[in-house]
Here is the input.
Amino acid sequence: LIGLVLSRYEVSAALGGLTPVAWLLIDDFAEWIAHPPGKRADILVVALSESDGRTIVDLVVIESKFVGQAAETQEAKDALLQLKATTDHLRDNLVLNNDPLNRPTWLSRLADLISEQGVFEGEIGGRDASTWANALRSNGAILRVRGVALVFTHDRREGHADPFPTPSAEQEEFIFDRHHIASLLNRIHGGEGPAS
Here is the structure.
């Protein structure tokens, strides 16, 4: 649970101009996105933005680990495998259209997730929730997928661990030590928003 909280804070800072409207536990919504059983990441963030009049939906996949140094190497390796499984699945079926027969169904379900689980504090890019959902259903939105594996090593006080190489530019891994974890927890406890 601590790892998920830290990951949300860390990723929120990295989203930049994107507006996250849903943070979903993938285990709870795996059937909706036709994710096969087995290895899967933890969180799916649905973030929205607009560019030159085009609606853009970013699907950000997060795999989080909160571990001790003794398990760091294996957990970092496992995190990437889980991240790759989910990121590849979403990319292949929603972005690259490798499943054209079922893609309209998955787009419709993603639109339903935005409508039913999304939190809109106002219009985004001049569009309300139903407009964003309709853009997805009609295949009128640009879909992008990327993923990040975040490994928090709570007892690493010295040195650093190098993340494993990732198979594509759309997948990244970061490993954080005790000092970074303490800094994040202090900022969260103090009510400080994520740094951009």
User: Anything to note?
Assistant: The chain is about 40% helix and 25% strand. The first helix runs from residue 2 to 14.
